[in-house]
Design a protein that fits this description.
The complex is a heterodimer of chains A (about 400) and B (about 300). By secondary structure, chain A is mostly beta strands. Chain A is built from 1 helix and 18 strands. In chain B, the strands form 4 sheets. An 8-stranded antiparallel beta sheet of chain B has the order 1-2-6-7-10-13-14-15. Chain B folds into 3 domains: about 80 residues, no CATH class; about 90 residues, Orthogonal Bundle (T-fold); about 110 residues, T-fold, CATH 3.10.520.10. The chains are: A mainly beta (about 400), B alpha+beta (about 300).
Chain lengths: ~400, ~300
């Protein structure tokens, strides 16, 4: 949401010309950073299928299926008057399958995973509303999002602003958000780590994007997030995490258009570090190829590498201190690759993606810790938007 | 209601939909006055224009400017940057060595001498003033003012709450309609036979600007030399398009984008226009037409 007709990502040159032009007195009655000219409605369906855990990696010796997630998304954005837009979003997720409960060492001396009882069923529904005001030099948005699961409830509010420089070549942005979450575990037969708990999340994001010339643009961003309260996984056996987590993210992106190929290279890097000693690097490279008949094909590849949290252990420990064997807090690396497709048919736009995600223990910068619970998955999505 | 007059170096037409002919005529007169105001202020042919004052002070002193002039310079600066230096308000002095009436080419020494006085990068301007660094340097708002005047006249008509209007200043056109169901049909001139339309577009709330070498050029043998001169070489770009038309949210952006494309090799111009992502039409030197507006 919060996109506007300038479609900055598409052409930095056009965005710069339009935002510099609208500062002229003749356009002052019109809005400089204008709400979308038409309404847009969009639907998207996505499916994520996690690979099963191999029989050799579970304590039972049996192959265990993992999560399948179905996601349906809806969004609507409508201009209101000369300087406002209002947006609505909805998202429904349905998860089913099993997830790793804890891990131990088996008779063969290798780490083995014990899965949660088969067939967890969970549903999540999320609704959001956004209002955005467009003025001469930028826009300001306010949003509220409510998310509900059987065992989790979250309310969040956010505000963001963007400001264009006089020459239209630079955009500054700032976003703030805060959420209040309630956890009431209900799932499964095993005892949970809590019956009722709270968590608050506060975050701030600052970014700048700079058009270098008509073929290239780069952006830099800095974000800080603080999570406070119950951060332990209520379902994972003996999981016990600190009640404060501070995260810092530094990101940079570059996009360059090549005339001869009629395509653009996109490179994005993200550095993450937090107070649990988790450090990670993400690098994504994508090639956006424009083809005839308004078709855009984008192959992409993404590499990810992270260190483990300072209380991670590959097997249950009972020291009474902080402990987690959550694979997401271990040291691991992932490679994902896929294809994005886009095609316009008059007021319709169809987009589709297919992605393969594979993870491995340790990797590039960090030591290898046994972790049989790391996940591989296939993801697909198909979406439609209609302008009216 | 149709209202015709001459300004900005060519024939101009307003078509205005209002409750009565009489009211439409009043609106047309006000919009006409707005066009004349901009012509008076920015024409390089008028001694009392801000353009003449700035040029007369080149290399000597800075000239104070108002908000509108500052924003025009600022826009030209953005166009200079995004075009990699092709769009240059100081390139007008090159006309001194190109005589399109005599149909003779300038000699290279003369072009190089004139080129030393071309260079937007050296122009210093701020919110209150502008300074051209060298005596003999000139700026020419010709590349932006006609297009800006289309938008300004249209903005004035919108403010006066007419039902719909079409503003055509010597071929640069802007239109709006309160009823998006009744757009204005516009024909784009064929570069070799201007009486023939190469494409037709519908303008509802947008602008169409065209740039072409059919207006003025030098022909030597089978080679045409366009009047659109590259500020880097002082010559027309080799294999540049014959004509480019662009549809954009406003005429200023449409016009400067068309000018930039006219300064590129045809194939580079096509890539640049498709990356720009707005409707365009390009006719190359072999009279092939390309672009999202071709064949409409």
């Amino acid at each position: 949401m919060g996109s506007n007709t300038l479609d900055k990502a598409k052409s930095p040159a056009l965005a710069a010309l339009l935002s510099s032009a609208v500062l002229l007195p003749a356009y002052q009655s019109a809005q400089a950073d204008a709400p979308p000219e038409s309404s847009e409605i969009g639907f998207r369906y996505g499916k994520y299928q996690e690979d099963a855990v191999a029989g050799g990696d579970t304590l039972s010796g049996e192959k265990s299926g993992r999560y399948d997630i179905d996601v349906a998304q809806f969004n609507l954005i409508v201009p209101v008057g000369d300087s406002w837009s209002v947006g609505l979003t909805g998202q429904w997720e349905s998860m089913s399958g099993a997830s790793p409960w804890f891990s131990v060492y088996g008779a063969d001396g290798q780490q083995k995973v014990i899965m949660s009882g088969a067939s967890i069923e969970d549903h999540r529904a999320e609704y959001g509303v956004e209002a955005r005001y467009f003025h001469e030099e930028g826009n300001i948005g306010f949003n509220y999002v409510n998310s509900k699961e059987d065992d989790y409830h979250s309310d969040s509010i956010g505000a963001d602003a963007s400001l264009n420089s006089a020459d239209g070549l630079r955009t500054y942005s700032l976003a703030l958000s805060t959420s209040v979450d309630k956890i009431t575990p209900t799932r499964g037969v095993a005892p949970t780590n809590t019956l009722k708990a709270d968590k608050d999340i506060h975050s701030i994001w600052m970014g700048v994007s700079q058009i270098i010339n008509d073929r290239s643009i780069f952006n830099l961003g800095l974000g800080y997030t603080q999570r406070q309260g119950y951060l332990t996984d209520p379902y994972k056996y003996r999981d016990n995490r600190p009640d404060n987590r501070e995260e810092l993210v530094l990101s940079g992106g570059y996009r360059h258009f090549f005339d001869d190929q009629n395509g653009a290279l996109q490179a994005d890097y993200r550095y993450f570090i937090d107070s649990w000693d988790v450090e990670s690097h993400t690098l994504e490279l994508a090639w956006v190829q424009n083809l005839n008949n308004d078709i855009q094909v984008t192959p992409f590849i993404r590499g990810y590498n992270q260190s483990q949290a300072n209380f991670y252990s590959d097997v249950v420990v009972d020291t009474g201190g902080y402990y987690s064997d959550d694979h997401r807090l271990s040291s691991y690396s992932t490679v994902s690759y896929g294809l994005r497709l886009k095609k316009n048919f008059g007021p319709w736009r169809v987009s589709a993606t297919a992605e393969r995600y594979e993870s491995a223990e340790g990797g590039w910068r960090y030591s290898q810790v046994p972790n049989k619970a790391l996940v591989d998955f296939w993801g697909y999505s198909l979406g439609f938007t209609y302008n009216f | 209601m149709k209202y015709a007059f001459k300004a900005m170096g060519g024939p101009c037409v307003f078509r205005i939909k209002a409750r009565s002919e009489h009211i439409a005529y009043d609106h047309a007169q006000a919009a006409h006055e707005e066009v004349l105001r901009l012509e008076r202020r920015y024409s390089r042919y008028r001694e009392d224009s801000i353009t003449s004052t700035i040029n007369a002070s080149a290399g000597k002193n800075s000239v104070s400017i108002d908000e509108e002039t500052y924003r025009l310079l600022n826009y030209a600066d953005t166009a200079f940057k995004v075009s990699g230096g092709l769009f240059d308000l100081t390139s007008g002095v090159l006309r001194r060595c190109w005589d399109f009436r005599s149909q003779t080419l300038p000699n290279q020494d003369e072009v190089e001498r004139t080129l030393t006085r071309v260079g937007w990068a050296g122009v210093r301007f701020s919110k209150g003033e502008v300074f051209l660094p060298d005596i003999g340097m000139e700026i020419d708002f010709g590349g932006v003012v006609k297009e800006y005047a289309v938008d300004a006249a249209l903005a004035l008509l919108k403010k006066r709450k007419v039902e719909g209007a079409l503003v055509d200043l010597a071929g640069d056109i802007g239109a709006f309609s309160n009823d998006p169901g009744t757009p204005w049909d516009i024909g784009i001139k064929h570069p070799r036979s201007p009486e023939k339309a190469v494409a037709t577009v519908q303008l509802a709330n947008s602008a169409l600007a065209s740039s072409g070498d059919y207006e003025r050029c030098i022909v030597i043998g089978d080679r045409r030399y366009s009047h659109i001169l590259n500020p880097k070489t002082g010559w027309p770009t080799n294999n540049a398009p014959l004509a480019v038309s662009i549809l954009a949210p406003n005429c200023l952006v449409a016009g400067s984008s068309a000018t930039i494309a006219m300064l590129m090799h045809s194939s580079a111009a096509r890539a640049w226009l498709s990356e720009l992502g707005i409707p365009w039409l390009l006719v190359d030197s072999d009279l092939n037409t390309y672009g999202t507006l071709a064949g409409i």
